Q: What sequence folds into this?
């Protein structure tokens, strides 16, 4: 059966796959045969930069940490959309400008709403303190 030109194109891929799988097998076999195989108690303790662990690993994070993370994700996604629009602004024309303007205005309205609801106040606030007394 003759080999077609399309099948010839897959020969380098097949050779690369065989070499990669073979190399992985050789490395796993070397690790198995050359490794010590001993299990000790030191292998099961947490290790962080050479510092001996103290205390419990479970602790609560403050709310500002989560707020900063969420703000970063929201504005990072917004930035990627604006960057994508900016790379093709000449192709999108006035319709693209209107769409990105509406997008930015909606995000800004969400930020203003969050600000008015007190979502940006991370520490003790005078209004919150007055509300409790």
A:
């Amino acid at each position: 059966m003759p080999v077609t030109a399309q099948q010839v194109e897959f020969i380098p891929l097949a050779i690369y796959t065989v070499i990669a799988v073979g190399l992985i097998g050789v490395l796993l076999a070397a690790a198995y045969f050359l490794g010590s195989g001993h299990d000790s108690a030191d292998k099961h303790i947490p290790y962080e930069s050479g510092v001996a662990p103290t205390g419990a690993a479970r602790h609560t994070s403050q709310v500002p940490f989560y707020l900063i993370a969420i703000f970063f994700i929201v504005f990072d996604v917004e930035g990627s959309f604006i960057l994508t629009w900016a790379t093709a602004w000449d192709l999108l024309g006035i319709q693209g400008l209107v769409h990105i303007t509406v997008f930015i205005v909606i995000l800004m309205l969400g930020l203003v709403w969050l600000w008015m609801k007190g979502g940006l106040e991370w520490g003790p606030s005078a209004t919150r303190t007055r509300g409790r007394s």
Q: What stands out?
A: Residues 89-116 form the longest helix (28 residues). The two ends are 90 Å apart (CA to CA). The CA atoms of residues 81 and 100 lie 9 Å apart.
